[in-house]
C-alpha cells in the first residue's frame, strides 16, 4: 500500500505501545559495521562505515522523546514534575512545559528538581538520583554543590542517556546517535555553553533541497502545510481534542487531488510530505496519535520573543556531561526495579537484589520507561502522575550514519528530503558542507522507525541506500561544497 494512501485514510491509532512492546530489547545502538552485500542492489555505493539507532528497542529509553498525544495537556507535564510527599522528585524532558523533547528542557528540569529538593530537605541529607542523562546529572551537580550527599544510579554502562556521542577510529569526527540539535537558541544558553567548551555548532535553519523519486529538484508549495493548518484550525473549534489524522479527514483538508502535476507530484503527495518530513520527525509519533490541540505544528510562539535559530552540534554534545559528572558518586549498570517511600525516607531495590537507602529520590528516567512495569513505586504514584505518564506520548526518531569514500551526490545543500514514492528515509543531513567529510545522516520517525527497529543492519542499510537514489549522480563533482 502506498504510504500516501495509508496516511490519508487513517483516522485511528495503530497501537504504538503494542508495537514497541514487540521489539526485542537491545541495550545499545548497533556498532560500526562494514556492510555486507544485500539482495536488493542500489545505484548508491556501499558506505565504508555505518551506525544506526533503535531507540524504541532500547530498554533504558523506550523511545526518543515525549510528544503531545491526543488528550494530553501541557498541565500534565507540570503535574508529572510535582514532588510526591516531598520524597520523590521528577525531572526529564517529559516534565518540561517550556521545551519538552529537547536537551535544554531536560537540563532545565534537572535544575527545577534540585530547587524542589532544596526547598524540602535539610543540608547533608542523602539524595539518590536515578538516571545519568543530562537531567539527572544537572540535578546531582546542583545538589552536591549545595552540600547534599548525592549518589547516581544509572542503568547503562555510560552517562548521557539519550545524549550519545560516539568517538572511534572508524569516523573522522564524533557522531551523535542521540540528541544532535540545540533548538530555539534565543531561549537557551545551551549553544553558548557548548561553544565555551570548544564544541562547534552550526546554524541549521535553511529549507531542504527537495527531490522527486526521479531525482528532479522541486520547490515546495504551501499545499501540505496549508492543509495541516486548515485541519488544526478546524480541530481548535471542536469540543474535545482529536488526532491530527482525524482532523485532516473530518475537516476535509485531506481531500486533495491525486493527479500528478508536470513534476510528477500531486497535491496529495505534498500533504504526505508535510506529514512524513515535518510532523513525524517533530513528534516522533504517528499522526493518528498526535494531538491537534497541542501539536508543535500549531503556531504558539510569543510574538515578542525571538526564538532564535536551530543549530546542529558538530560532535561532542556529551562534552556538556563531563563537568556535571565530575566528583559525583555513581553506580553504573544498575537497574532500579522498585522505589519505596514513606515519611521515614526512601529505599531503592536494584535488579541485582541489592537495596539502597536515601532520604529523597530524584527520578529522571525517560517517559518511555515510566510507561512500562520495570520500575515499581510503593505506594503507587498519585493519579495525577499516573495519568500524565499514561496520557503523554513517547515518540521515536532513529538515525543511520553513513560514511562514504567520496560523495556520490552533486548538491551542496546541507538538508535533503524527498516527495512522492515510498522511501523509508525521507530526510537526510549532508555533513560535507558542515564538516568537509563525505558523511550522510538519515532520519526515520514514528511508525516507520518502529517497523525498521525490527530489521537487521543489512535490511536497514538497504532501505537507506534505496532512499538515497534520488540524490545519486553518475558523475558527481569531486567536492560538491568546498570548491
Automatic annotation (TrEMBL):
- Signal peptide range equals 1-23
Question: Which PROSITE patterns does this UniProt record tie to the protein?
Answer: PROKAR_LIPOPROTEIN
What residue stretches are annotated with the Amine oxidase domain?
42-118, 134-474
Task: Establish whether keyword Signal is in the entry.
Answer: yes
Q: Could you tell me the superkingdom of the organism this chain comes from?
A: Bacteria
Biased composition of type Polar residues is found at 29-42, 289-298
Keywords of the record: Signal
- Entries under SUPFAM superfamilies matching the protein: FAD-linked reductases, C-terminal domain (SSF54373), FAD/NAD(P)-binding domain (SSF51905)
- Write down the Gene3D superfamilies for this protein, in alphabetical order: FAD/NAD(P)-binding domain
From the UniProt entry, list the residue stretches annotated as the region Disordered.
Answer: 26-48, 288-307
What is the protein named?
FAD-dependent oxidoreductase
User: Which source organism does the UniProt entry give?
Assistant: Cryobacterium sandaracinum
